[in-house]
Amino acid sequence: MDIITFDQLPKAVSELLEKVSKIENILSQDHPNETGADNLFSIKQASAFLNLSISTLYGKVCRREIPVSKQGKKLYFNKTELLEWIRAGRKSTLAEIANTVKLIPSRRAQRR
Fold first, then answer.
1. How many other β-carbons are positioned within 10 Å of the β-carbon of residue 77?
2. Is 79 within 8 Å of 86 (Cβ atoms)?
3. Helix axis angle, 54-62 relative to 43-50, nearest 10°?
4. pLDDT tens-digit profile of 59-109?
5. Which helix (H) or strand (E) holds 40?
6. Rounded distance, CA 38 to CA 4, Å?
């Protein structure tokens, strides 16, 4: 490590600030902010995200099958809500169903 003299200090601080700025830019690109408007999709973006046609998406909105926000004539879809909606449609495996049935007490056991 080089020893910095008092005369070199302004230049060293300037270089240090430049390097910190570059690091911040790299980190912000790797981890985009997932809050606020970044979470909102337009109808086209939601269609691509869900791999559904726009007309199918409009049908689901009309039947109130999918979470949506409407502002004026525009539809907005929240990414987190869409992921929750997808997860809510998950089908249980046979093993999960069997485990659930084992946990339910039988009627014979309830009569005793």
1. 23
2. no
3. 100
4. 999 999 999 999 999 999 999 999 999 999 888 888 888 888 877 776 665
5. strand 40-41
6. 44
Q: Where are the alpha helices (DSSP H) in 31-106?
A: 43-50, 54-62, 79-88, 94-103
At residue 78, the 3 state secondary structure works out as strand
For residues 77 and 68, the answer to whether their CB atoms sit within 8 Å is yes
Highest mean pLDDT among 4-8, 45-49, 93-97: 45-49
Start-to-end Cα distance in the chain: 82
Q: For residue 68, how many other CB atoms are within 10 A of its CB?
A: 20
How many residues belong to the chain? 112
Q: From CA 25, how far away is CA 30, in angstroms rounded?
A: 9
Tokens of 82: 């869409």
φ and ψ at residue 33, rounded to 5 degrees: -65, 125
In this structure, what token pair is assigned to residue 93?
């495996």
* Residue whose token pair is 């559904």: 52
